[in-house]
Amino acid sequence: MHEQESTPNGDSTEPGRRRFLLGVAGLAATSAVAVSPAQAAPSTTGGPAGGRNRVTAAVTQTGRRRLGSLKVSGIGLGCQTLPGTMYGPVTSRKDMVALVRTAVDQGVTFFDTAEVYGPLESERILGQALQPVRDHVVIATKFGSDIDPDTGAGGSGLNSRPAHIRRAVDRMLKRLRTDRIDLLYQHRVDPTVPIEDVAGTVKDLITAGKVLHFGLSEPGLQTIRRAHAVQPLTAIQNEYSTLWRGPEAKVLPLCEELGIGFVCWSPLGMGFTTSTINPYTRFAQGDYRAAVPRNSRENMPANMALVQLLQDWAVRKGATPAQIDLAWLMAQKPWIVPIPSTTRLSHLLENIGAEEITFSRDELQELNAAIAQISIKGERLPPEDLAMTGVEAPIR
C-alpha cells in the first residue's frame, strides 16, 4: 500500500501541524465528548487550489495489519500517558476515557498499556473505556515490574518470577474488566529469571484462556529466539522512529525470519518528531523527557536537522511532521505497527490521519537516504532505563 504514489497535495508553504490543529480546533474544544466518524473532518484546505495545499486530517481508520496471526488497526493507541504521570498532568480520567472511546469510533482497534503505567491506572482507564466494545478491540498489556499487583506499590526493579506473573495477570484482568488479555508482553527482560520459565508460564496462561498471544519488549536477540522456541511470539515492542532506528540492524531482520510482528513504542520520539520541541523547550517538573540525553541543551540543536527534514516532507506531502514519521514507519514493513501515545483529541485525529500518507518507491528511497545522513546525538533513554534494554535472560 505504501509503495504506491499518493495523490499529489501541491506546494503548501507552512509546516502542517499548526494548520492541522487549527483545522480540528472545534473537536479539540470538546475533547471530553466522543466524536463520531462523521464529525471528524477529512481534511483542512486553504488557498484557491482547493484540494491542493491540503493537510491530511483524520478519517475513520480502515487499514488493518497483522502481528503474527493477530489482526490490529494499522495505527494503535499507546496509553502510557493517560494517567498523567509521564509527560505531565491530564485534564481528568473522564476525559481520558472519552479519548479512548473516540479512538474506537475513529477505527482504532489496538490499545497498548502496562501495569506500571500509573501504576495500574492506565489499565483501569482502558477497562472502563473499552468494556462496552471489548469483543471489537485488541488489548495489549505488560508484566514484569516489581510492584504489588494490588496496590502498585514497589520500586523500580523487575520481577518475572512465574508466581508473580500469574498473580499480576489475574489483577490485570480485573482492572481491564475482561476475561482475557489479547497480547501479553514481558515489559523488560528479568536478568534473574530464565526466559524459558517466563515463556512457559505465559504458555500455561494461554492454555487457561487468560492470555491469547505473547510478546517481549526491548529483549536481547537470543532471548527472542529462546522464548519463541517455548511459546511462539506474536510481537516484539521496541522504540522505533526516524529519531531512533536501532531495530533495523538486527531486531527487524530477526522478526522477519521468525514471522514475528513489530510494535513501535515512542514512534514520534517522545514528541520530538512532531516539531513541537526545540532547544528552547523547557520541560515541566516531572516530565520524563527532561532526563533523556538526546533532549539536552548540548545535543538537541544538532538533532533539529531531522525535524527540518520532516517539516520539508510535510510540506511536500501536504501532511504534518508527525504524520510523515508515522507513515514512514508503516512503509518500512507491512507487519510494523506504531502506537503513538497522546492525551489530546487533536493529536489523536492527526495521528490516525497518517494512514492516508503514502510514498512511492522513489520517494521512500529518497527519504530513507536523507534520514540516514542525519546523525542523532545523545542516548535515547536515561542510563538506568537504557541498561534494561537488549538484556539477555540467564540460562537455566
From TrEMBL:
InterPro entries: Aldo-Keto_reductase, NAD(P)_OxRdtase_dom_sf, NADP_OxRdtase_dom, TAT_signal. This is Aryl-alcohol dehydrogenase-like predicted oxidoreductase. It comes from the Bacteria. Residues 1-40 form the signal peptide. Residues 75-370 form the NADP-dependent oxidoreductase domain. PROSITE patterns: TAT. Pfam families: Aldo_ket_red. The keyword Oxidoreductase applies. Gene3D superfamilies: NADP-dependent oxidoreductase domain. Keywords: Oxidoreductase, Signal.
